[in-house]
Amino acid sequence: MEAALACAATSISYMVSSDRRTVMRMRQRALTHQTAAIRSIRGCIELGSVNGTEDWLLGTVILFTILANRDLSCPAWSRGTHIRAIIQLLKCRQAARMAEAECDPEALHVIFERECYESLLYHGTTMMTYDPDFDALVSSEAWQMIDEYFQFSLLPSDEKWESWPVLGVPYKLFRLIVTISNLARRRPLGEEDLAIAAFAITELHQWVNFLASNASSPGRLYILAAKVLLEDVLSQQPEGISLKDSAQADIHCFVNEITATAVTPLFSKYNLWPLSIIQHIATDVGAKRIIKDRIAETLRVIDGCGVMEVSQERLDRFVGMPGLQYTIEVSKDVI
Q1: What is the per-residue pLDDT for 332?
Q2: Interatomic CA distance for residues 205 and 215, integer angstroms
């Protein structure tokens, strides 16, 4: 509850951004609630009354993650720390589940856990665009856990978007996005990276074919953005084949689609990542302006109807895409 109140107070502070006194009061209240939540968790750990499988504990850490990403004053390292904590808690739950004889797929904790796995992928993928040091979704150990969960999930894991309450598309698409994002961080690519890129191209073509027969899927903009990002990476290879014409055609298609789409809560839920990718790669001034406006509208909808203006600092986080402009050493085991 304290973590939820901290998130609520932070959100309210952005809704009243024109009143500095109220902003500071709400930020202070958020800090008070956050401190109380941390103190409560520490107390439970000291008493030995938690084992890492509790729903409330996992939910609290997820709220901490949201708070760390929402509050621009939070240190960058805290975002990755919370994500890694979520992964550890999910590992505890996975070990406990394997020891169970059977489990009701309609049990609330099963449904909650599914939403947590999807939330991990959704927020982690978005964080990769603006946090160059975020690498929690890179390790083979993390992906082994995620793959095993969805492979043996008690809930539907088919390709129908209705089966994915948070992601809107199968987790394999987000896995592919992480792969392509890592390639963007490693350019210029080596021989092994190029082999991974070839694999990603094949996977993308399969997704394009899937969406051709599933026009209602929210994943269309994700596929376009992932394709453009990979084409951009390959185009910047020394003596590589230029794919700029193909990328520009995809960007044009992307802009046409978002221009004809209203920014509703459903749109905002799914499309912040593809908007950030295309806005950064697009070269046409008009297209960049349209996408930037859509990003601002999306952030306003996410923040709530009371937010009239998104701060430039927050907007820059999604427009500049700093997380994919750095070359860092990452494990290829993610593939």
Answers
A1: 43
A2: 15
- Report how far residue 223's alpha carbon sits from residue 221's, in angstroms, rounded to the nearest whole number: 5
User: What residues contact 315, with CB distance under 8 A and at least 6 apart?
Assistant: 292, 295, 296, 299
pTM: 0.81
DSSP 244-289: HHHHHHHHHHHHHHHHTS---HHHHHH-HHHHHHHHHH---HHHHH
Quote the CA–CA distance of 270 and 100 in Å, as a whole number. Answer: 34
> What gap in Å lies between CA 335 and CA 333, rounded to an integer?
5
**For the chain, how big is the Rg over CA atoms in Å?**
20
Alpha helices by DSSP H, listed for 48-190, are: 55-70, 76-99, 108-130, 140-151, 171-186
Identify the H or E element spanning 206. Answer: helix 191-212
Tell me the average confidence (pLDDT) per consecutive run of 10 residues in the chain, 335 residues long. 72 63 76 80 81 84 81 75 87 79 72 88 86 81 88 80 80 89 84 90 85 66 89 78 73 86 66 89 90 87 65 80 58 43
Q: Find, among 183, 285, 325, the residue nearest to 240 by Cα.
A: 183
Spatial separation of the C-alpha atoms in residues 211 and 189, rounded to whole Å? 29
Classify 52 in phi/psi space as left (phi over 0), alpha (psi -120 to 50) or beta: left
Tell me the C-alpha distance between 335 and 330, whole Å.
11
How crowded is residue 4: how many other Cβ atoms within 10 Å of its Cβ? Answer: 15
